[in-house]
């Protein structure tokens, strides 16, 4: 995994972020990683191709919030998402990590060991979930 801090967004990263947020928000979210000292964005690759990314926001220096996580569709299901979460936890020596997600991704977090809490219908017709993992 390598940290991304280029002012210009790489097209591969832009494509990955499109899986994790709405198309209109990509540039705004990317800028938060570049400008905010407590936000970090990392990418992972195979043979020089960027295939995954994870963005995290660190609170109180030891609590992480996953803001974005994405793996190219053709590379999903082989543990890439899980290895990115393990990397973040180790890299930042976290006490806890959390994420908010929809029902499409909630099983991924549950299988990893996150505790799942329904936040109800946060947006019309869209149930959201809080996923929390305590590491210490």
Write down the overall mean pLDDT.
Answer: 94
Largest sheet composition: 7 strands, mixed
Helix run count? 4
pLDDT < 50 stretches = none
Query: What is the strand content?
Result: 35-45%
Structural class: alpha+beta
Q: What gap, in angstroms, lies between the N and C termini?
A: 23 Å
Shape: globular
Q: How would you characterize this protein structure?
A:
The structure is a single chain. This protein is globular. A seven-stranded mixed beta sheet has the order 1-2-3-4-5-7-6, sandwiched between helices. Helix 3 links the parallel strand 4 (63-71) and strand 5. The protein is an alpha+beta fold and 136 residues long. The chain has helices spanning 11-20, 26-35, 80-91, 106-112, and strands at residues 2-3, 39-46, 49-59, 63-71, 96-102, 115-123, 126-134. The model has no long low-confidence stretch (mean pLDDT 94). The chain is built from four helices and seven strands.
List the helices and strands and how they pair.
Layout: E1 2-3, H1 11-20, H2 26-35, E2 39-46, E3 49-59, E4 63-71, H3 80-91, E5 96-102, H4 106-112, E6 115-123, E7 126-134
Parallel strand pairs: 4-5
Antiparallel strand pairs: 1-2, 2-3, 3-4, 5-7, 6-7
Quick recap:
Helix content is 29%, strand content 40%.
Based on the model shown, name its key terms.
alpha+beta, 136 residues, globular, 29% helix, 7 strands
């Amino acid at each position: 995994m390598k940290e991304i801090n280029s002012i210009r967004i790489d097209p591969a990263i832009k494509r990955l972020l499109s899986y994790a947020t709405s198309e209109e928000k990509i540039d705004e979210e990317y800028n938060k990683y570049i400008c905010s000292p407590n936000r970090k964005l990392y990418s992972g690759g195979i043979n020089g191709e960027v295939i995954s990314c994870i963005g995290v926001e660190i609170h109180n220096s030891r609590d992480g919030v996953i803001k974005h996580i994405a793996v190219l569709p053709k590379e999903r299901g082989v543990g890439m998402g899980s290895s990115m979460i393990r990397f973040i936890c180790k890299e930042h020596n976290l006490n806890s990590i959390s994420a908010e997600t929809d029902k499409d991704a909630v099983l991924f977090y549950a299988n990893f060991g996150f505790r799942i809490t329904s936040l109800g219908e946060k947006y019309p017709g869209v149930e959201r979930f809080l996923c929390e993992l305590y590491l210490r």
